């Protein structure tokens, strides 16, 4: 049989725990989880800014006084 049995997985897990220790594995899990969380947050923020820009196109009426004054001075 070429597949992995439950015993192969158990032996592999024991070897990994013995090599790295539980504290390093716990820290690694926290780091990976934090990175995934930050990635999802940045993707969500990117989608919100893109949809906001699409929904409200900027026209002359939406420009602020500072924008109008800077265009007049140039």
Characterize the structure shown.
GO terms for molecular function: protein transmembrane transporter activity. Belongs to the TatA/E family. Part of the twin-arginine translocation (Tat) system that transports large folded proteins containing a characteristic twin-arginine motif in their signal peptide across membranes. TatA could form the protein-conducting channel of the Tat system. One of its GO terms (biological process) is protein transport by the Tat complex. Its main location: membrane. The chain is mostly helical and 74 residues long. The protein has a domain at 17-55. It has 3 helices and no strands. It has helices at residues 6-20, 22-55, 65-73.
Helix-strand blueprint:
Layout: H1 6-20, H2 22-55, H3 65-73
- The average pLDDT is 79
**Uncertain ranges:** none
Q: How many DSSP E strands?
A: 0
Shape: elongated
Relative strand content: under 5%
Helical content, roughly?
A: over 70%
Main beta-sheet strand count, sense and barrel state: none
Structural class: mainly alpha
Topology order in helix (H) and strand (E) letters:
HHH
Oligomer: single chain
Q: Between the first and last Cα atoms, what is the distance in angstroms?
A: 77 Å
How big is the Rg?
27 Å
Please count the helical segments. 3
Summary, kept brief:
The protein has 74 residues and is an all-alpha fold. The protein contains 3 helices and no strands. It has a domain at 17-55.
